[in-house]
C-alpha cells in the first residue's frame, strides 16, 4: 500500500518525498493493473491530473492547503460530481452528466480532494453482490472468482487494491458494510441524515446514506467530519453530536445470541471473536424480538420507495431513450424496459404492488409500524450499553458463478445489515483478525451506537479493534 493513511500521505507531501501529480499517477497505474476486477466504471484521469498539477503549483507558491489536499477518492457511480458521468450502474442513465455535485462531494473537493473516478455497483444500489450492474460484475481482489459483495463492491475493491486512498459508497441496507467485510476494508454507514443525500441518486430515501470505505478509522473519521452536517438541500439532514466519547474503562456491548448462531466456519469465527471480547469488554446478552421481520420489513419499504423514486426515469429527462417508439406511451414503456435491469424491474413491480390500493395498509402501513417497533427496541438495547455488536453476513463471500435460483435467499443474506438502516443508527465494521486473508478474504462484525453519536463510534470501534 502506498500510504497507510491520509496523515502519512500528507507527511510525505510536506517532506517533499512525494508530489500530488506522482501520487495521482500511482493510483492511475493501480487502476490500470487491476482493470480485470471491474471496480471502476469511469476514470477521470485527465481531470485528476489537472487538479494534482494545480495543487503542486499551490504548494510551490506556499499557498494554504485544504484538509484533504490531494487525497485521492473514488465515488460510487450513484453519486453526482458536476460535469461528470453518473449512471448508478444502469443503462437507463447512459451518458448522463450531472450538472451539479452532491453536497458530500462538493465538501470534499472544496478541501482539495481529488475524485479519481466512479466505481461499479449494483444498479441503483439494488443487490448484495455487485453482479446486477450494467457493466458486468465486480471481482474480489483477494480471489477474482469470488464476489466482492454489494452494492458498493467497486468502491470496496478500489480501496482493497489500493486504487485510491478512500471511497464514497452508499448504504441503504448494508451496501457499504458487507463489501467492506469481504475485502478487508473498513466500512462506515453514518446516522441517517448525518451526510446530506443531495446528489445521491435515490433508491430508498428514508434508508439511503452516503458513507466511507477506508483503510482505517482515522481516515473514515476525517472524511466523515468534512462531509457531515445539515444541508438546506436535504430536509432530512441533521447535525450530529460534535463531541466524541472516550472509552476509558470496559465498554458495555450488547449482543443477541441468536444472531451468532450457525455452523459455518464463517459464523464460528464471528462467535469466537465475540467471545474473545470478554477480555476487555462487558458483554451484555439482550433479547431482540423482530429478527424474522427485518428482511420483509426492509424489502416492503425500500421497494415502495424505489418504485416512486425511479418513476422519474422515463426516457424524457435523463439517459436512455428507445430508438423508434410508436407513440408517447410506447416511448416510456420501451425506454424503461430497455434501460432497467431485471432486479430493478422486479423491485419496481413489488414496490408498486405494496403501494397499490387495497394492499397499501396490509403491507406498506404495517411495515412502517413494524419499523417503529424495531427502532424502539434498538433504542432500548442501547440505553444502558455503549454499543450493540452483531454479524454482517451469515456466510463468507460466495463464488461469482454460484447459481442462486431463489431471490429471497439473497435478500435473506441482508438480515444483519438492514437493521441499522431501518433504525437510522450509525454502524461501522470491525475486522476479525484472521490469518486466512488473501487465501480466502476477510471477515468483520459491525458495531451500532445511538443515532447522532457517529463521532463516538470510531473511538469505540478502535478500542475493540486495538485489543489485537
Ligand atoms: N442488499 C441490499 C439491497 O439489495 C442493500 C443494498 C444497499 O445497501 N444499497 O437492497
User: In whole angstroms, how far apart are the ends?
Assistant: 21 Å
Strand content: 5-15%
CATH third-tier fold name of the domain at 6-227? Amidase signature (AS) enzymes
Q: What's the multimeric state?
A: single chain
**CATH architecture type of the domain at 6-227:** Alpha-Beta Complex
Rg is: 21 Å
- Major sheet size, sense and barrel closure: 11 strands, mixed
The overall average pLDDT, rounded, is 96
- The CATH class of the domain at 6-227 turns out to be Alpha Beta
pLDDT under 50 segments (min length 5)?
Answer: none
| Class per helix and strand makeup | alpha/beta
The helix content, as a percent range, equals 25-40%
How many strand units? Answer: 13
Overall shape: it is globular
Element order, helices and strands?
HHEHEHEEEHEHEEHEHEHHHHEHHEEH
Fourth-level CATH superfamily of the domain at 6-227? Amidase signature (AS) domain
Amino acid at each position: 500500500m502506498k500510504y497507510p493513511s491520509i496523515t502519512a500521505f500528507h507527511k510525505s507531501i510536506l517532506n517533499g518525498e512525494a508530489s500530488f501529480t506522482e501520487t495521482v499517477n500511482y493510483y492511475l497505474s493501480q487502476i490500470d493493473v487491476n482493470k480485470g476486477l471491474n471496480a471502476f466504471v469511469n476514470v477521470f484521469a485527465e481531470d485528476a491530473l489537472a487538479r494534482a498539477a494545480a495543487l503542486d503549483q499551490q504548494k510551490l507558491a506556499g499557498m494554504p492547503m485544504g484538509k484533504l489536499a490531494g487525497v485521492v477518492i473514488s465515488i460510487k457511480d450513484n453519486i453526482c460530481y458536476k460535469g461528470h458521468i453518473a449512471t448508478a450502474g444502469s443503462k437507463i442513465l447512459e451518458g448522463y452528466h450531472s450538472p451539479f455535485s452532491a453536497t458530500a462531494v462538493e465538501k470534499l473537493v472544496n478541501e482539495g480532494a481529488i475524485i479519481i473516478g466512479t466505481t461499479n455497483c449494483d444498479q441503483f444500489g439494488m443487490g448484495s453482490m455487485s453482479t446486477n450492474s450494467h457493466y458486468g460484475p465486480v471481482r474480489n481482489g483477494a480471489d477474482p472468482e469470488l464476489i466482492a459483495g454489494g452494492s458498493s463492491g467497486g468502491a470496496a475493491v478500489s480501496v482493497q487494491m489500493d486504487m485510491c486512498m478512500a471511497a464514497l459508497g452508499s448504504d441503504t441496507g448494508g451496501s457499504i458494510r458487507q463489501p467492506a467485510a469481504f475485502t478487508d476494508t473498513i466500512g462506515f454507514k453514518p446516522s441517517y441524515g448525518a451526510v446530506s443525500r443531495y446528489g445521491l441518486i435515490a433508491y430508498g430515501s428514508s434508508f439511503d446514506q452516503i458513507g466511507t470505505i477506508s483503510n482505517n478509522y482515522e481516515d473514515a473519521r476525517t472524511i466523515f467530519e468534512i462531509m457531515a452536517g445539515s444541508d438546506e438541500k436535504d430536509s432530512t439532514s441533521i447535525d450530529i453530536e460534535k463531541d466524541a466519547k472516550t472509552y476509558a474503562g470496559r465498554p458495555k456491548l450488547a449482543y443477541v445470541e441468536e444472531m451468532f448462531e450457525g455452523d459455518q466456519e464463517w459464523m464460528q469465527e464471528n462467535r469466537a471473536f465475540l467471545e474473545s471480547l470478554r477480555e476487555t469488554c462487558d458483554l451484555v446478552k439482550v433479547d431482540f424480538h423482530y429478527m424474522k421481520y427485518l428482511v420483509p420489513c426492509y424489502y416492503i419499504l425500500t421497494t415502495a420507495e424505489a418504485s416512486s423514486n425511479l418513476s422519474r426515469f422515463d426516457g424524457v429527462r435523463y439517459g436512455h431513450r428507445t430508438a423508434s417508439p410508436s407513440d408517447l406511451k410506447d416511448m416510456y414503456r420501451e425506454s424503461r424496459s430497455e434501460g432497467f435491469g431485471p432486479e430493478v424491474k422486479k423491485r419496481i413491480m413489488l414496490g408498486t404492488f405494496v403501494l397499490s390500493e387495497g394492499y397499501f395498509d396490509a403491507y406498506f402501513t404495517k411495515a412502517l409500524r413494524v419499523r417503529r417497533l424495531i427502532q424502539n427496541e434498538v433504542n432500548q438495547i442501547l440505553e444502558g450499553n455503549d454499543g450493540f455488536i452483531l454479524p454482517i453476513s451469515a456466510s463468507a463471500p460466495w463464488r461469482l458463478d454460484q447459481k442462486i435460483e431463489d431471490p429471497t435467499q439473497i435478500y435473506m443474506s441482508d438480515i444483519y445489515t438492514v437493521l441499522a438502516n431501518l433504525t437510522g443508527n450509525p454502524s461501522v465494521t470491525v475486522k476479525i483478525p484472521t490469518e486466512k486473508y488473501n487465501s480466502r478474504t476477510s471477515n468483520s462484525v459491525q458495531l451500532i451506537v445511538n443515532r447522532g453519536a457517529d463521532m463516538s463510534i470510531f473511538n469505540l470501534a478502535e478500542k475493540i479493534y486495538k485489543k489485537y
